[in-house]
Amino acid sequence: MAQASYDFFQLRFFIAVAEELNFRRAAARLNMTQPPLSRQIRLLEDRIGLTLFDRSNRSVRLTPAGVSFLKSATDLMQRAEYAVLTARQAERGDVGNVVMGFVPSASLHFVPQIACALKRVMPGVKFEPIEMMSYEIAEGLQSGKLDLGLTRSTAHGQEIENILLVREPFMLALPQDHPLCEKQDLSVRDLKGVDFVGYSSERGGFLKDIHRALFATVGVTPETVQEVSQTQTIVSLVNAGLGVGLVPQSAMAMRMENVVFRSIDAPKEFNSTLYLNIAPNRGTPLNEKVRATILSALQSEAAARQGAA
Question: Does residue 85 have a pLDDT over 80?
Fold first, then answer.
């Protein structure tokens, strides 16, 4: 029984002859002489135990086996070339999968910015954003389930790298008929005794801590009527007229009919941060390029926003 094995260069020779149906033209196409080409075709036929060409002094034709073999050989060569191409792209960091956990408040502005930047700059990368809580992101980074994270505070864990992306001021979200809308310049002191929708300690803990420290520093105690975990919920309750809310500037991406966002004077050290968290052992070209793209997109956008202000 013939040994069904062959080399890729023999497939390339076979395809050239099959497409030209002329050994002389095929040899010229391959930049070689005709005798070694003929030898390799015969060796290929011997190895697979099939006659691929009907040869005569005047013509060369594919046999039925040759017609079938041409289709498979062409497909095999294309897949081999694609395998080499994708391997080279992976080596350069142009293709691959990146999984990023993000806290819900980052979904309003920052995650869309990142997704658009990666699609524009790295179209061969599959980006998988997953909404999670901060502690879940830290666990995912440590376990290797996540490549990146977006959190409001640094993610704690062995060898997790944290890069500050953004410092954004807090904005006051008010119902459009609220008395404070009439005030020219707002400060945190204006919130004394005002119905306030704030963050809960359970799942909005980091922003809750900032609010608590801010109010203690200024010496103001709003009238907290509701505490919730997510920025989106605060803005929705403000829209319903329940009270006012102090939210990160990126929440202005939420457009609701009854909500007005106003700047509020507060000590500069009180702001909302956003960190890019990087899992251990993520020094591949892909992850380095993704990190650079995210940094460029968000930091450039933040600089433009500050310049406009």
Answer: no
Quick: pLDDT tens for 10-24. 899 999 999 999 999
Lowest mean pLDDT among 13-27, 206-220, 294-308: 294-308
Return the pLDDT at 190. 94
| Residues whose CB falls within 8 Å of the CB of residue 276, separated by 6 or more in sequence, listed in order | 148, 149, 150, 162, 163, 165, 291, 294, 295
pLDDT single digits (tens) 135-154: 899 999 999 999 999 998 88
| Structural domains of the chain in order of their starting residue, each with its CATH number | 8-92 (1.10.10.10), 98-160+276-308 (3.40.190.10), 170-270 (3.40.190.10)
Write down how long the chain is.
Answer: 309
Residue 4 has pLDDT above 70, yes or no: no
Amino acid 204: pLDDT: 54
SS (H, E, C) the chain: CCCCCCCHHHHHHHHHHHHHCCHHHHHHHCCCCHHHHHHHHHHHHHHHCCCCEEECCCCEEECHHHHHHHHHHHHHHHHHHHHHHHHHHHHHCCCEEEEEEECHHHHCCHHHHHHHHHHHHCCCEEEEEEECCHHHHHHHHHHCCCCEEEECCCCCCCCCEEEEEEEECEEEEEECCCHHHHCCCCEHHHHCCCEEEEECCCCCHHHHHHHHHHHHHHCCCCEEEEEECCHHHHHHHHHCCCCEEEEEHHHHHCCCCCEEEEECECCCCCCEEEEEEECCCCCCHHHHHHHHHHHHHHHHHHHHHHHHC
| 246 touches 56 (CB < 8 A) | no
